[in-house]
């Protein structure tokens, strides 16, 4: 078999066989297929697409390119959660302690931010000392003893995806449905949970900008998970504005902590509860969504979820006192308010532009080697549907560099779409896919 022939075949729109896909992924993982051939293949896939069967084959080949974790020694149904990536998406930070506080074990692999979307690991590293580089035995011990552990994608968990994602990221081939579905599901299947809940974002700040593409992606991933023997569900959620009010790293951690204290923004809490309810149903911890929501609310009201977050941060080397006193997080040198140039109603906040503005401040990663500034960020004072008068503060920018702050403020101002008439807003949680 020759990679050249496979590229030619895909270029002409033909289906690759199961063996051909295995050959390609095995060769790419061991280095015998070079990056330039794999880049040509991913670009051909972008133009020609992949069938459902090819997508499943690609997922399983990437899953099997490294270790497949066995979590069976941990009692209980292990439920994983994954987001397709968004702006202000700090869902895992609040959701995982809530779920763990209800006795459902959470063994989670997370990623770092890249491009305009943030990553859970970077955000958690705002706690001084916090690490996700956990040896396997500590990861297992923490899940068993405190019900929660979060690790970075190790080099040997779906290494083919790790390599392929890095290549796609620099060759403009990220936003292809089969490539996204196989990338996410290969990692989820390799990380060994019994059930998977997917948060599929839709809108301007999502990889899938069109609603029907988001639904198609969700269906594709649910069918891959189900076919691989895992209970899988997806929730389609809005990304036509950032989630919650905070965008950055430490600033998002503070918002997640506030949510665990019962003080978070309502759209964020809605997404956390929608995903959490599916997790609790899969784990058999609740029999209905209503019961699940009540359990989660009780966990917040009693302080159990907040205490679980502190326990989790401490167990991974972080300073848990920050959970109880968020004023300890470092402050930026400068801040500026972005004022509305006209009155009306907010129709849309281009989430991608807000994500890019945060990256401009140094809060996101332009290349995979960028060092990020955890203290900078953007706080949105006005969200979709809100009435605005000329001169009202739309957002506050927190920065450590004046030039970057001015550039970000300009971007944030232009990210707001304000019109004279109010517009009916769609709910943040759009649809469930089983
Ligand atoms: N997240 C992933 O893990 N992979 C993709 O391809 C896109 C988002």
From TrEMBL:
<dbReference type="Pfam" id="PF00591">
    <property type="entry name" value="Glycos_transf_3"/>
</dbReference>
<comment type="subunit">
    <text>Homodimer.</text>
</comment>
<dbReference type="GO" id="GO:0006213">
    <property type="term" value="P:pyrimidine nucleoside metabolic process"/>
</dbReference>
<comment type="similarity">
    <text>Belongs to the thymidine/pyrimidine-nucleoside phosphorylase family.</text>
</comment>
<dbReference type="InterPro" id="IPR017459">
    <property type="entry name" value="Glycosyl_Trfase_fam3_N_dom"/>
</dbReference>
<keyword id="KW-0328">Glycosyltransferase</keyword>
<dbReference type="InterPro" id="IPR000312">
    <property type="entry name" value="Glycosyl_Trfase_fam3"/>
</dbReference>
<comment type="function">
    <text>Catalyzes phosphorolysis of the pyrimidine nucleosides uridine, thymidine and 2'-deoxyuridine with the formation of the corresponding pyrimidine base and ribose-1-phosphate.</text>
</comment>
<dbReference type="GO" id="GO:0009032">
    <property type="term" value="F:thymidine phosphorylase activity"/>
</dbReference>
<dbReference type="Pfam" id="PF07831">
    <property type="entry name" value="PYNP_C"/>
</dbReference>
<dbReference type="InterPro" id="IPR036320">
    <property type="entry name" value="Glycosyl_Trfase_fam3_N_dom_sf"/>
</dbReference>
<dbReference type="GO" id="GO:0004645">
    <property type="term" value="F:1,4-alpha-oligoglucan phosphorylase activity"/>
</dbReference>
<dbReference type="InterPro" id="IPR036566">
    <property type="entry name" value="PYNP-like_C_sf"/>
</dbReference>
<dbReference type="GO" id="GO:0005829">
    <property type="term" value="C:cytosol"/>
</dbReference>
<dbReference type="GO" id="GO:0006206">
    <property type="term" value="P:pyrimidine nucleobase metabolic process"/>
</dbReference>
<dbReference type="InterPro" id="IPR000053">
    <property type="entry name" value="Thymidine/pyrmidine_PPase"/>
</dbReference>
<dbReference type="InterPro" id="IPR018090">
    <property type="entry name" value="Pyrmidine_PPas_bac/euk"/>
</dbReference>
<keyword id="KW-0808">Transferase</keyword>
<dbReference type="Pfam" id="PF02885">
    <property type="entry name" value="Glycos_trans_3N"/>
</dbReference>
<protein>
    <recommendedName>
        <fullName>Pyrimidine-nucleoside phosphorylase</fullName>
        <ecNumber>2.4.2.2</ecNumber>
    </recommendedName>
</protein>
<dbReference type="InterPro" id="IPR035902">
    <property type="entry name" value="Nuc_phospho_transferase"/>
</dbReference>
<dbReference type="InterPro" id="IPR013102">
    <property type="entry name" value="PYNP_C"/>
</dbReference>
<dbReference type="InterPro" id="IPR017872">
    <property type="entry name" value="Pyrmidine_PPase_CS"/>
</dbReference>
<feature type="domain" description="Pyrimidine nucleoside phosphorylase C-terminal">
    <location>
        <begin position="345"/>
        <end position="419"/>
    </location>
</feature>
